[in-house]
Predict the structure.
Amino acid sequence: MLARLRAAVMAALLLLPVLLAPAGVAPAAAAEKAFQRDELADGALRLEAQIKKDAGQVTKSPDQLRRDAEAALARNDTRTALTVLGQLVAVAPDVASNWLRLSRAILQVKGADSREQNTLWERGATAAYIAYQRAGTPAEEADALVLVGRAYADRRVWRPALDALRLSLELKEVADVRARYETLRTDHGFRLIDYSVDADTASPRACFQFSEALPGPRTDLSPFVSVAGLDKPAIAADDRELCVEGLKHGERYAVTIRPGLPSTVKETLQKASEFNLYVRDRKPFVRFSGKAYVLPRTGQQGIPVVTVNTSTVNINVYRIGDRNLVDPVAGEDLERNLDRYELERIADTKGSKVWSGELAVQSPLNAEVTTAFPVTQAVGDLKPGVYVMSAETKGPSDNDYSALATQWFVVSDLGLSAMSGGDGIHVFVNSLATAQPKPQTEVRLVARNNEVLAVRKTDADGHAVFEAGLTRGEGGAAPVMIVGVNDNGRDYGFLSLKAPAFDLSDRGVKGRAAPAGLDAFVVTERGVYRTGETVHVTALLRDGLGVAAAGVPLTLVFERPDGVEHRRAVVADQGLGGRAYDLPIVSTAPTGTWRLKAYTDPKRPPVGETTFMVEDYVPDRIEFDLSTKATGIAKGTPVEIAVDGRFLYGAPASNLELSGEVTLKEAKERAGFPGYQFGSVDDEAEQDAESSRITLDDLPATDDKGRAVVPVTLEKLPETSRPLEAQVVVRMAETGGRAVERKITLPVVPEGPMIGVKPLFSGRSLGEGETATFDVVVVAPDGQALARRGLKYELLKVDTRYQWYRADGAWSYESVKSTKRVADGTLDVAPGQPGRIAAPVEWGRYRLDVSSNDPDGPTTSISFDAGFFAEASADTPDLLEIALDKPEVKAGDTLTVSVTARAAGRVRLSVIGDRLITSVTQEVPQGTTQIRVPVGADWGTGAYVVATHLRPLDAQAKRMPGRAIGVQWLAVDRAAKTLQVSLATPQLMRPNTTLRVPVTIAGLAGGAGQAGQEARITVAAVDVGILNLTGYKPPAPDEHYLGQRRLSADLRDLYGHLIDGMQGTVGAIRTGGDGGAAELSGSPPTQPPVALFSGVVPVGPDGKAEVAFDIPAFAGTVRVMAIAWSAGKVGRANVDVTVRDPVVLTATLPRFLLTGDRSTIQLELDNVEGRAGDYRVAASVEGPAQIGGTTGPGTGPQSVRMAAKQRASLSLPISATAAGTAIVKIAVTGPENFALERTYPLAVKPATQIATRRTVRTIAKGETLSLGADLFGDLVPGTGGLAFSVGPSTALDAATLLKALDRYPFGCSEQITSRALPLLYVNEMSVEAHLALDQDADQRIRDSIDRLLARQDSSGSFGLWGVGGNDVWLDAYVTDFLTRARERGFVVPDTAFKLALERLKNYVVNAPEPGKEGARDLPYALYVLARNGEAPVGDLRYIADTKLGEFATPTAKAQIGAALAMLGDRVRAERVFAAAVQAIEPPKALEFGRPDFGSSLRDAAAVTALAAESNAAASLLPAALKGVEEARARAFYTSTQENAWMVLAARALSKSVPLSIEVAGAARKSPLYRAFRPAELATPLRVTNTGEAPVQAVVSVSGAPLVPEPAADKGFKIERTYYTLAGEKVDASKARQNQRFAVVLKITEPQPQYGRVLVVDPLPAGFEIDNPRLVSSGETGTLDWIQDSAEPEKAEFRDDRFSAAFTRNAKSPAVFTVAYVVRAVSPGRYVLPQAYVEDMYRPDRFGRTGTGTVEVSVSRQ
């Protein structure tokens, strides 16, 4: 039927993509409606846009259309009715009844098949949803919701159907609707869907699963559950499950779930459910006690077997011989449960079965019994290898494919430990029984390929070493296992080297990794830079002991924030292993975090690295500290935060405004209890956003000393069981409006005790079959551990089942979670004695719940996985307390280590630096023992003392062997390796003078007759206001080379894998077997930064040097930072120098102005040292601005009387008159001839976007065209420009095109190439310099080459924004440019160029058939290869003869033709070019999202350019040129790709088009392309046609119009809304200084399609962005009220704008938002510019807001 409905509306209904992706809310009113569905909101935008597009121009009135539709429906003419209703909603879209009519009509249509029917239901629901959102009465809303519910019910999507019908009935009661709702609710509403009985645990329970989630723990559900015989049954609810606790095995229970049980979907249980349940006895069950494999030889009963309700266990024992051991150890089998098939494979191929029989066990009903299986009795003599024992209950199995309980084991007395480091593998062997060393033990190192790499014998201390060379193998030669053999082979053990090493970070192991070779200290002189500034790098290269690596060159690689390599420089040693390097930051550099890496070998990992930021920053001028005496903050109890502020020029920050807020968030842990987790993971109130942010109102200003007290009271806390912390943020604002932010974090004191649970395994996922172990504590609100008895725990396995249903013609499902109790019990805790929980886990997801016996007491839950992937190690060594007698030692000292052992045993003390330095062992009793170790000269710069306490087995006490590890770091002779550096700088100096920095290094001078040591220094002097922005710390090479590093060795042992064979009684065995056999720049800063750098400076023989810096006009603190180094030492020093005039002038200007703005210059005069008296301030301005209301250059002087130490303020109005750069001059004079003058540049930018007005003028024979400055009359002064072209075609006006390319500021690889490619031919096209636009065109080309090559990956491919990609067309385009650049004499590195060509060759060899994808990529690749003489001629001829018709675009055909022409096949080339020209067609509709960046205009221009370059037949060019002109005439805007190819076409045709014109009196015979500024046309330019025929001239005037363009929606709609940070909508047009806003940009694309989309929001000049990279509170990710937020691929926070780039496609949501935070800073009245969004490759698709005004008023001061 639908095939007959070809009307436009039906196309809208059926051809839109299926709505699966959620999107944003629909119209603004939608936020006020109760029923919300993201997929309908998204579909509403798409449907309405499509209907409007297809309805076209409608001439009838809405009333007439309504009558026509009713008439059509009355005669059952659905086709006509839908067409008319589509026109009706197009002309009257806000009338809800129209959409209701459309929805009803759609839902009456019957689809031809299920897919079309589902589409109709979907469209009907969408139309009804639009009606609901636009309904003005409750009755209309109710009617719309009925249709929505009906459509969802027809699609079998029950929950939204029920919600829609329920809300409809709340608005209007209708009997039919009520009946339908009740029927749906009974069948598909909130209901009980299943139940289960957990009988296989010690504490059984019954659980009931529901279709919807139940209320949380704060809702009492006990009235809705009754259990016969139990007055108050214990009830627990979790998500969709309700469980009845406290049941008993072997009992029957009558359980009733009563009606009225609430849910979270506003429905209650309709009817009672009664269950007669029997809790059966536990199933017969057998398992082993844990995941371990070493059974000590002595004191053991056997291998413990745990059983339930069985008297006999079937046991099988297998042996895998020593030579086959490597596979289970290196693989994943060791310690894993195996199934029958795997066990049979062991018997058949890997080993043998050595015993089979039964084990008799006790069987008390439902209780777990542990019985020891006597291994030695059953198996006899144990041979080398590993044994595998399986166990199952006797009787038939219910599952032959499941894994059996499996115990891997060896019986051994060898306690193996391994220490793997840079010097090899150290193995220690001790007796498990006695802890004594095991000398003469044979130790083997086994590789993955089963080869024995080496064999060693242990010494008297049980120590053996495998040298480093043996441990560096890879692949099959990699070592995987240590094997120990003693007692003539009768004692055998092994240790895997593939298991995770111990994580000792909880014992103080920290720092950077110890270097494997050379080590570079790389540092910049500050942490943040603006574009246009210079990064000064200091790099020292040394070995692991801090000794200089002289003469070794260092390669510095700078990477941009997107990972693209920006620059690579090889820097030679500039003395004693040190060097300095400067990197200018170009104006187009992207903002964000840059990375600098240093290499000695670029093919190896970096030997050093650092980061720095590029941002539009303004230096701080004040700083302050926050402090408090409080250790925590409790609800309702005030806490005082002390503020102490100062100006950086030394004066107190007096009388300044404070603001701030408190953010409450979950704390990662509680102080004093590292690793413990508190509270419930799934706490329903965890996202209580209303209480998470508290504004601190009415804060006091600072007093005369710059101090204040900020009171903080938490009146309300989020209702959560998790620990909280309060982050107090305080901002101090200068009088000029800019603020500095500091924060302090306090733990929130809980209202009661909390239970802490600490997993004793690292990571979140355990291996299958391992034992999950936890420690449990109870902590009081004051942080003290408490004693508690009877804590309850239960370990639940979380299972997810899926209920399948059919919807939208396809199967879908909803998940139903249930829990199964696998272990439970009680435990006691006490201070210093945590409770311990241990339970084996199989594959699955688990949750551990621990609670007090008080129903209202605390609860803690922890979730973890088992068997998914074993990222965790279940083995965490016990903690051994050790202490050192001194933190630093030197050679010859004796180090005393105090060890506190909990039991007698043996301690091995290892000193580990870059290797194992020394090791001593000593017997220790219980308690504290001191062990003394002599310090050797080979201890390096620092070392870890690792103490391992081995506790022997105690058979009498039934205590297994154990080990505990303690770790301490100590420095070694640091003073002898450190240079003592002093800086003799003044504490105070004046600006505009020279700062001399005398540097003295002690200890360099030699003795009598000896030369002193050489040394070098670098010195930097940087404004502290810049350093504070990033928290920059002065460089510390001594900490880098001599400070604590990460432990260099990995520690492993088998003590965590011991089987406790002392459990249980010995069971009787019965044998049944036999024994087996064996881009955008910001505004310039108002003052240049103070960041000065000396470079490398040699130090004299006397240890002295001097560095001088010229300090500019500046007031603040300069931090002088020195780095010093000699051949074997490093050092540093830093000192602060205050720079100020006696009277300090501080000026606060807006970062920029827009034309028409009226702003304020805030001047502060601080009489810090000057005489009291009258001071005169005079202000003037040069350039496009004026101060005051005068039209002159300035205002009259103002007089200010100031006492000593007094501060005064002045405000000067300033307004912008034109675009350009204004220079503001402030002069201050006062008593005793005091005088100072400061100048401040101020950028003035147009308030409107640059627009271009293009006019085609015909110049008749003899006619003269005059071009004068009057053309710029409607443009903002200072922004105008004129491009003038007289050439072969009006479409190819090269001057305009080049100007457009130059203006486009964004920097993906295509745009970089499109901008640079035409510049190769600029001078060839015209000798006038005006055409080049940039005087440094060649440098622009070289920079473009560098930037593009930085995006090339190892395969030769180029990324669009980052390194590498998979876009062959882009690869060919970039390589085309590189080829042409080489032809023009530019340097392109051979390696990179050959790599690019290889990439194209490889693609050509493996390219798909042309017909599959339209073959856009292959022709371009062949063309570029042909241009380089490397194209396969045969392939080209074959394509031209047989495949040409399969190429999708004219460009592709032209590229084949050009390739053939270059290879000399002119005949085929002409034929192919003719086909390309014939394929050019004017576009019938706009084209979007072509993968080759193309369009009809680009195709026509590329065909013209390639044909002309190839000297194709002259008859082809007019037709090609006609295609360019027709496509250009239809294009309102052009992309960079189109512009680039049109310039190439203009260049190619320029020589073939004779002209005769006279320009300013000079004759010209070739095309003219020139650009002019207004000043150049003060005298009009006259162009005369001296030829015989008329000529066409193109005049393009560009600039910022005085009157802004109106708001527009051309494929996109953009809305800009201001909110408070709490999410309340506000009017930002009336802002107060220091007020902060969240700016939310909402972009709607009703018909999403592929595109690279740019969103830009220019700022009003009175606002400044809180850059989240510099100010933490500027992060919008914490604002969870923002809806539909999309993560941009790239975002920039600049002085004058926010921008974000996105890649979109047809499945993208129709609505997306992006947000940022701004602050009102400068008082005044400002233009609010237009925010805009555009598709970067289809500029005709765009949206922009209107303009407005913003007024910023002075703050309360």
